Amino acid sequence: MRLTILGGGGFRVPLVYGALLTDRAAGRVTEVVLHDLDAGRLHAVSRVLAEQAAESPDAPRVSTTTDLDGALRGADFVFSAIRVGGLDGRADDERVALAEGVLGQETVGAGGIAYGLRTVPVATDIARRVARLAPDAWVINFTNPAGLVTEAMSRHLGDRVIGICDSPVGLGRRVARVLGADPKDAFVDYVGLNHLGWVRGLRVAGRDELPRLLADPALLGSFEEGRLFGPDWLSSLGAIPNEYLHYYYFNRETVRAYQEAEATRGAFLRDQQARFYAEAGRPDVSALGAWNRTRAEREATYMAENRETAGAGEREEEDLSGGYEKVALALMRAIARDARTTLILNVRNQGTLPNLDADAVIEVPCLVDANGAHPLATAPLPDHATGLVSSVKAVEREVLAAAESGSRATALKAFALHPLVDSVNVARRLTDGYLAVHPGLAYLK
To answer: Do 189 and 365 form a contact (C-beta atoms < 8 A)?
Structure first.
């Protein structure tokens, strides 16, 4: 079976390949094709993968290419993990927004809109090419903003594109762990959009254990989200939010922390990864060793400003091991082998949430089999969550409309309607600022 990874020079690709090496049951992958526009990054990552495979005689063979069509032909699965504009673009997204006093995070707020406007046209082109060159392939989308990009691709691929994110998995694992349950035995009732969802229940042997957690301030304060949001607020919500909701519930404090930080997250990663790729390309250096050191620092500093604002302390050791690659392989295994399983995924709504139309991509538990991912029925969200989900989905639709039409006015509307942008005048300045720094937005007229 052939797996093509778009964005194959990306820093997290070794996580996927490492998971393939330790779990060969994940669909019998025999060939991995790495595609990237940057040949230097491809070289560095392929060196890491070669070291990973050194002790595995039956490791999937790896090839690299800068030819997109060639990478797609013959693919059984396509992992899309591109970053349009690179980390320079992410750093600019953050800088322009923070200068206006609003959040510039990669997927949330103004930064997420700018990233989406750059990415959707490229992702749409990829989807069209997959439909033409590999119509039987399944596309697993890692590219952020994951829900928005998955929805853009689904307009050309239907249900053969599925978005994934490791945040809900990590959250469910932490909630199960603090309740003394084995995560493998727990069903996580998680509903929302990508980076905008809530755990509303955790059922073990048919019993919902979440009320026990919400009623115990000591238990609530003993894990990441409890420290991040505070036990009182979680009790008031009656649910455990995805960590990205910290940007909404504590927006003013978070923006201030990001403005005062020595460097934004994008700038930090840009500089860190520049050092890694330079080091990993040297023949006298262990590329795998350089990658492991860089990854440890990357994971430990994840959402550091949010944790500092909340006084949440350092990340727990169990949360430094990633997870999105495990979700991707579990999804691929379930489809390739018809090994039915339940995963939290980004899929078309199909009536699951009554306030959204059938084609809106949401993030919910799904039953996965050889025919793809099927969202499970769920109870409606409470009004406060419904309002936020509907508002953010409306913004996503404006981004999609702007990308399709090339309308600058529609792009401005997307910025202005986002709940974390508090003025149409700010939206105008954001639009001007992003057009000034991003050549990839020149299509907006």
So the answer is: yes
Mean pLDDT by runs of 10 across the 445 residues of the chain is 97 94 73 97 97 92 98 98 96 96 95 98 98 98 97 98 96 96 96 98 96 97 95 97 97 94 91 94 94 89 65 54 81 94 97 96 98 95 97 98 98 98 98 97 97
Global pTM reads 0.94
- With 0-12 / 13-18 / 19 or more C-beta atoms within 10 angstroms meaning exposed / middle / buried, residue 245 is buried
H helix runs in 23-85, sequence order:
39-52, 68-72
Distances (CA, A) of 169 to 155, 174, 428, 433: 26, 9, 37, 36
Residue type at position 268 = F
Distance CA 213, CA 211 (A): 5
| Helix-helix angle 86-99:265-280, to 10 degrees | 160
| CA–CA separation, 166 and 185 (whole Å) | 18
Spell out where 235-283 has E strands.
Answer: 240-241
Task: Read off the amino acid at residue 76.
Answer: D
- Nearest residue to 8 (alpha-carbon basis) of 52, 38, 31, 29: 38
